[in-house]
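In response to reviewer comment 3 from the previous cycle, which asked for concrete evidence that the modeling workflow produces usable outputs, we include below a single protein chain processed end to end. The sequence was submitted unchanged, and the resulting structure tokens are shown without manual editing.
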Amino acid sequence: MDPVAFEHHLTSPQGLGRVPADDFTVTADGGACCDSIRFSVSVGEGALLDAGFDAEGCGAATAAGSAAVTLARGRSVLDAARIGPRQIAEELGGLSPGKLHAAELAADALARALGAAARERVALSPPPSGPRTLVAMSGGVDSAVAALRCAQAGETIAVTLELWADVENDAERSCCSASAVAQARALAHLMGLPHFTIDLRREFRDGVVEPFIAGFADGETPNPCVGCNGHVRLDAMLDFAEHLGADALATGHYARIAEEDDHAGPLLRVAADRAKDQTYMLSALSPSSLRRLRFPLGALTKPEVRQVAAEAGLPVASKADSQDLCFLAGTTRARFLARHGALGERPGTITDSSGRVLGRHSGHERFTVGQRRGLAVAAGTPMYVLDKDPVSNRVIVGPRGALHTTTVTVRSARLHRAGTRVNRVKLRYRSKPLPARLIGDPPGGRHATLTIELADGVDGVAPGQLACLMDGELVIGWGTIARTGRS
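The workflow returned the following structure tokens.
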């Protein structure tokens, strides 16, 4: 460590207290260390014209903020987006392990400020000399390999969204926490890529979490990932790609894109690795969005992806996949709804279809149609949830046979091609597509409701889940499963 360099930034901090004209200002918090840095940048014609900061906490935070200003001021926006904790620590003459958190905090503050500026300013970056791709990185192996493949093909810029922050959230298991953002940024910089951070927490709360809470309150079992991918997260990154002069957005999803000769736009196609296929979660994407999307992992299997990562020396090659909804990582659905949706302990009855009381429960939102476990009812045969009545807070149960149906109604549906092409439907993310057809041969376009006829029927469909309408391997459209009114 060079104490002279550190002392210079500590006693003569560059940009301390400065807020440039036309600024974009963000605040990064250091969490447990209680430090924070407020960072401001001014940009124009693809360059960072000026920067300033304020710091609270230890002296190392002030020195690191000064180092970040020194390194970033006057650089192109893309070069500034390559500045990470390592460069800041080097500018300070090296940092002891106990002070590295300050460099990480300053790098985070700079990245957030650059992301805010880049998100607001159209054509922020100079036009690229060749193809430019924006790649979404989450800190996991899939998005890292997607970024690696894009970087091997041409100019690539990385972006990570911070979507959720909660004291009960397990940051290490969530793909959208501040911890995940830092891991993704470190991976991008390891590959030499500029990296931007976008704070999308407000939009995520309004467009994903609130509908999730409202769906359970209405007696449904919503699937928030579909709305997040179709209307919030990918839309924001597609807009960001335009601001950066990128003609495509790449993600680490397991899916493929198919072009047809009818000029109606591309369609989603099932991934080569059926076990990892994510077309269900991407079903709400429009053909206009798909035109600008790339899925570099669509033709690979998960073992092949891990092998590519290992051969490239990426530290996430063996990192476990995230399993939970990002905002539920580390907590339970019931506790989350109680804390964020005012759906706490609300005793109600469990009845059969005739209204006979068989037991009691502590909130209908804890159950989903088709559920068997956790009912705790006294009956001679196994009982399953048939429906929920949110008005009376009643859960209706019955034998498995009562779940069977050969028709499914969906609402707010969208068809990208004629309904006559639909020959299969996927009713759950992990379920297999079922032979089916649409009644009435509806044309392409938007439909208030559609009715799906199943060739063999199914035992239970959960209102609120997505119905993915397919023609073989292609996604033709989608709709949200509607309530049957059984109760």
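Residues 345-397 form a domain with the SH3 type barrels. fold (CATH 2.30.30). We consider this sufficient to address the reviewer's concern, and the full set will be provided in the supplementary archive.
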